[in-house]
Amino acid sequence: MKINWDEHEELKAEGIALSRRFAFGQEMSCLKVVADQSGDLGLPQHWHENEQWVVVIEGSIRFVCDGTEYELNAGDVAYIPARQRHTATFVGEQGAVLLEFSAPPRLDLAPGSIIPSSMKYD
């Protein structure tokens, strides 16, 4: 099945200049994130029960996982194990487009969902 991202509702991102669209299946979900401009994301470190894969399609981002900072550029992939503390910190000069795959699916992100956020903060 082909996903047409333009047919998916844009999700709000509080305080952050990002466009996010969400698709999910029975066993995993995918969040497409587009950051059109460079800058600090201001996202707090968090964790969740879902394992996560991040694939950078365009541009670059910096993120921290278990205390180690990484620069991810177009074509790079990051794996974040379940319950691992992490955050995205900065979008590079060219902006960024990335896909975040989560298993089990992040159903809390589905439009109209009444499921509480899966993100935990210390």
Automatic annotation (TrEMBL):
InterPro entries: Bacilysin_H2HPP_isomerase, Cupin_2, RmlC-like_jellyroll, RmlC_Cupin_sf. Gene3D superfamilies: Jelly Rolls (2.60.120.10). Residues 37-100 form the Cupin type-2 domain. It comes from the Bacteria. This is Cupin domain-containing protein.
